[in-house]
Design a protein that fits this description.
The chain is built from 8 helices and no strands. The protein is mainly alpha-helical. The protein has one domain. The longest helix has about 30 residues. The radius of gyration is 19 Å and the shape is elongated. The relative contact order is 0.15. The protein binds protoporphyrin IX containing FE. The site of protoporphyrin IX containing FE has 22 residues, from helix 3, helix 4 and helix 8.
Length: about 170
Amino acid sequence: MHSVIFSNIENSAFGSAIAGSEWMFPAIETIHVFAIVTVIGTIAIMDLRLLGLASRGRTVQAVERDTVPLTWIGFALAVITGILLFVSKATSYMANPYFLWKMGLMLLAGVNMALFHRVLSKDIAQWDAPGATAPAAAKIAGLLSLALWIVIPFCGRAIGFTLGVYY
Ligand code: HEM
């Protein structure tokens, strides 16, 4: 059943237009790369501040104010371009473990980020100051986030290299 859905997506006018074009897929993937660089770059700045390894002269909240809006803009663009890439070869991607891992790890990264913003930073006003060290739980969230956002692009890169292997 589910492969019928994905082959219908792939054979849609949209999917076959992108797959059949010489320039559309590379153009969309180029924008995808810009979007993911923005996401990972801004998240890394925030995580390195949480770990006390960068921007120590600034408060975590100030770094957050500057980075989080860019993270969301980049993520929205990564999702839009990612879906466009996906529809062009949907059945191949759904058979590719690196694609499935990437989606799962992104979900985990989202949960980790939500936990930090909703739970761990509830008492941020009490500990946040220029030069201040974040509590252990916030550091762990920062470290886990950094690790996930290193493995996610690895999986993204591995997709293209292994399409012929798993399909
Ligand atoms: C911010 C989150 C994301 C990151 C960090 C990310 C990372 C990457 C990377 C590093 C590549 C390889 C680019 C290249 O080699 O030129 C890639 C390709 C790709 N991504 Fe993403 N991606 C993200 C979101 C998404 C989403 C939401 C989807 C789908 C719904 C998606 C679907 C794809 C597809 C289909 C490819 C093409 C693989 C290929 O055939 O080469 N990505 N991604």
